[in-house]
Amino acid sequence: MHVKTLGGGGVGTAPGVESPGTTYTLDAGAYVVSEDAFTGYTASYSGDSDLNGNIILAPGDDKTVTITNNDISFTSKGGHSNDEDDSRVDKPAPPVTEVTPTKAILHVIKLVINDDGRTAVAANFNLHVKTSGIDVAASPAPGAESPGTTYTLAAGNYEVSEDASDGYTVSYSGDSDSTGKITLTPGDNKTVTIINDDIPLPPFIVPPVIPAPAILHVIKHVINDDGRTAVAADFNLHVKTFGIDDVAIHSASGAESPGTTYTLAAGAYVVSEDAFAGYIASYSGDSDSSGNIILAPGDDKTVTITNDDIAFSPVVIPPIDVPRTVTGGQLPKTSTYLYNLLFTGAVLTLIGVVSWRKRKRYE
User: Fold this and answer.
1) Shared-domain flag, residues 325 and 304
2) Is residue 206 part of a domain?
3) Given this model, what pLDDT does residue 109 score?
4) Helical H segments across the chain, by residue range
């Protein structure tokens, strides 16, 4: 008698034994119980196997297969038959029925854990069952939560996998190894669960708010009411941050209204100009009296530098030194300051008298 795996591998061979029979301790799986052909007897199977001796053992099973052999009647030379007679006529053994290997069942379950803010579901993942790198029938398929997707497969080696998915880690549990590989034997009913756990979302970063720029107009206004002739472009103007550096344009010539326009970031600035002789400068508009101004985002402000000319100083006639010749010799110290003063007074008096007489003539 033989006990073999369904694929034909031998487990044990022993002579037949009446009850309680021969005991085998086996792994769970599919087996077939058989015996060598024996002329003159029919064989039948009973107990926990099918009619051909096929039996599936699950972990913990305690099962029995009984092979019953019944002798075949034969006709003696005298034409009498006797079922109990040990004299036999050789007859062919019954044909051996070929056993078709039992297939295996594989369940593939997709479990998605969203405990860190992501929202994918099982069907968002694309799952594969492959053998020798080739998808089996009905693979790939969208993931499905328990009870999952069921495949009926021949015994063999398989690999369960899924397409890459951003934002999730993947792990395997159930009857496969940690990479999804699994071996199926005939009659197996196994499960592989692919677990996807979401990766925490990166912290939300608030984009920086870029303040709106400000607009500053700088006007140069020149007043010439005391005889001077400078124009706006003769003055060199500056806009500085905190008085340190020129902004945008290091320096610019002055310009009458609408002036020179600067687009600036919000902040504190000072408007100034190079020194210019003959004019006094004053500041008006949105700055203080020194040209300091604070710009907020979106401001549109104006600073006017007014330059007023300074009156010329009166012309001073220098002293006139008139040499004098006196008969009989030079008077002593006639070129002194007092002499010059008296002489100048006499000249002015003479001019005044002449002018008065001319006026009287026309009256």
Assistant:
1) no
2) no
3) 97
4) 337-362
Single-letter residue type at 19: S
Q: Residue 130 and residue 147: Cα distance in Å, rounded?
A: 20
Whether residue 50 lies inside any domain: the answer is yes
Query: Residue 281's domain spans which residues?
Result: 214-309
**CATH number of the domain that residue 227 is part of:** 2.60.40.10
Name the token pair of 180.
């999804």
Q: Are residues 336 and 304 in the same domain?
A: no
User: Which tokens hold the place of 197?
Assistant: 């756990």
Say if residue 131's pLDDT is above 50.
yes
pLDDT average, residue stretch 9-19? 80
Indicate whether 269 and 326 sit together in one domain: no
- Burial code of 12-37, b = ≥16 C-beta within 10 A, e = fewer? eeeeeeeeeeeeeeeeebbbbbbbee
Q: How far apart are CA 320 and CA 345, in angstroms?
A: 12
Angle CA 272–273–274, to nearest 5: 140
Query: Residue 94, preceding bond cis, omega within 30 degrees?
Result: no
The answer to whether the CB of 213 falls within 8 A of the CB of 297 is: yes
φ, ψ (nearest 5 deg) of residue 53:
90, 5
For residue 326, what pLDDT is reported? Answer: 54
296 and 324: one domain?
Answer: no
Q: For strand 214-223 and strand 300-309, is the pairing parallel, antiparallel, or unpaired? A: parallel
Residue that terminates a domain, selected from 144, 165, 198:
198
Cα gap 61→68, rounded to integer Å = 22
Residue 351 is classified by DSSP as H
Token couple for 72: 């075949």
User: DSSP state, 298?
Assistant: T
pLDDT at 272: 92
| Domain total of the chain | 4
